[in-house]
Amino acid sequence: MILLVVLMIIASLSAVVTETAQNSFFYQQYVDKMVRQEQVMALSDGVAEGVKILFSRDDSNVDYYGEYWSYPVPFSLHGISVNIEIEDEERFLNPNILVKHGVVDEKAKAIFDRLFEITETGAEFTDKLIEWITPSDVDDGLKHAPFDTTEEIKLIGGVTPEIFNGRIEGGEFKPGLRSLLSVWSDGKVNINTASKWVLMALDSDIDETVASKIISYREEKPFKKVDDLINVNGITSDIIYRIKPFTDVNSKHFLVKSDIGIGDVDYTLFILFVRSGGTVREVWRKIR
Hints:
Blueprint (H helix, E strand, L loop, with lengths): L1 H22 L9 H24 L16 E5 L2 E9 L10 E2 L2 E2 L1 H13 L5 H10 L27 H5 E4 L2 E4 L13 E2 L5 H7 L5 H13 L16 H7 L3 E2 L4 E10 L2 E12 L2 E9 L1
């Protein structure tokens, strides 16, 4: 299946690259900046169409690592190198769920408090996230509206590069906020793809041992429904009842990252897709 998808993406890219090559004498060694930009735009269209083809062949009821979308797709074509990676955004926690209709969701707050305690980020960051998104007419320099991008979290006071990107302390990796949070999700965590830190944050009775058992179980047999967690040693019906409003077994938002190299110039393409049923829609696209 993955070979078929790669061939489809290559076919999409080959058509647009060949057209660009035919229309410009300066392609490859003599390509100028404008031509490279046109090629990147054409390539981005090919990547987008290829990803849509990929997800049209995916079972949207369950998403897990091991499906063909979860593997990197590297290849070269006409002197252009491309590496495509797809990130499941429902593996993260969405900070926007902390406040609903102007009121703090205490259950969601407890999850974030645990997350920042587990990762030793600092429990005060839950309150800082809440202050940032809670509606208010006070002019205090805060947004008082939901996060629009995950990068926006860096604007919050106290969020250092180490806290946002991750750090090594005492030989142990401490994940950064970018590895834990995403504003591009429906607010429910996919238990088939969530990291151990996010799984542990979901409930106080899910410690590192239980979280590791969840990960080991899903590697052998992905969860088809949240209730299947009962098959994991250490998970009780009470835990499932508490985490059910915040969990799922599939994903709706996928962030595509594609590294593109044309000659000695590198570009990075980002495309966010949202999937609803059998329909895949592009939300936004950025090229850096």
